[in-house]
Task: structure prediction
Amino acid sequence: MRHQPSDIERSPSRDLGNLRHLFGFLRPYRTRLVMASLALFVAAGAVLAFVIFAWDKASGLSQEEKKEVSILKLLGWQTSDIIFLRFCESLTVSFLAFLAGYLLAWMHVVFFDGAVFRPVFLGWSVLRPVFSLVPSFAVGDLLLIFSLSVIPYLCATAVPAWRAATVRADSVI
Result:
């Protein structure tokens, strides 16, 4: 009777051979999978950075922010005025960040010919096709980028603005 290897006696090379057999159909798509994985990791990193930033903004107020709100309340500002002020601050910061990012991306494509992303777009093949990035401007793309960057930031700062505005003036000073 022939001896059958048990799960304990299996070698790692045999398991690797099984994986190659199972996922061998992906071999022609290897370059695309690498580029898609890279894009997925960059997007996941951006989402994680935004979540950390939103958590930091919502977690608490600094002593300086509490003093600022207390002084404004002592000067006669209402809670709605302070919330509006925080909203205007957040809108200004997010709009300037959006504008700076868009202009830097435009300059990267126009002046540097997309040097950072060129290897990702071309892949890792030996024979590279002719590739030139032509900058284009579309209002729909601009609005999409704006709505994906500015609106979530404004939503993430709404609760901290409300928490800051409801601080009692006599509790800090």
